[in-house]
Amino acid sequence: MLSIDQILAITFTLFAVIDILGSIPVLISMKEKMGVIDAGKATLASGFLMILFLLVGQPFLSLMSVDVKSFAVAGSIVIFVIGLEMILGVEFFKSDNDAKSGSLVPIAFPLIAGSGTLTTIMSLKANFSDMNIAVGIVINLVIVYLVLRSLTYIERILGKAGLMVIRKFFGVILIAIAVKIFKSNFWNM
User: Fold this and answer.
1) d(Cα 8, Cα 187) in Å, to the nearest integer?
2) Quick check: keyword Transmembrane helix in the entry (predicted)?
3) What is the 3-state secondary structure (H, E, C) of the chain?
4) 10 Å Cβ neighbour count for 37?
5) How far is CA 34 from CA 46, 50, 57, 87, in A?
6) Can you give the pTM of this predicted structure?
């Protein structure tokens, strides 16, 4: 049964974890490297991963002999490297000039549907119905799509200097988030 209260709680929780607004500098940086981000493909891939984890997340990780904490640690390392790229201006993720693959990795995973998002989805199952979680996921995907489609406009508003400052600032934030995810999962493995 659909519940507006549950859907709102799930939507706001996922919005905070996905943090698409905080990822704008990362996304603009990735767009500059790749030339273009396929908003539709990135959104669909992210949605597919989120729904997949909603339905079969825990059994899938168990089948691969991977626990949730190990999955979170691996995702935190990728996020850490992306943060380093932003701060140092060094390119670790080499662009293959293929916007199709670049829209999927590292944008769809791990930026949008990363380990934090996927483990949050699995955690939400303890308190909310799958249908309400699915609706919350779809609402967040609409927001993600709109942000991805608006990157050029956002980039114009901020300008080169504004983007540089924001990119460095959010690079540090991204590294801090990665360290937090790593610390909270690595030491408890």
Assistant:
1) 33
2) yes
3) CCCHHHHHHHHHHHHHHHCCCCCHHHHHHHHHHHCCCCHHHHHHHHHHHHHHHHHHHHHHHHHCCCCHHHHHHHHHHHHHHHHHHHHHCCCCCCCCCCHHHHHHHHHHHHHHCCHHHHHHHHHHCCCCCHHHHHHHHHHHHHHHHHHHHCHHHHHHHHHHHHHHHHHHHHHHHHHHHHHHHHHHHHCCC
4) 21
5) 18, 24, 30, 18
6) 0.74
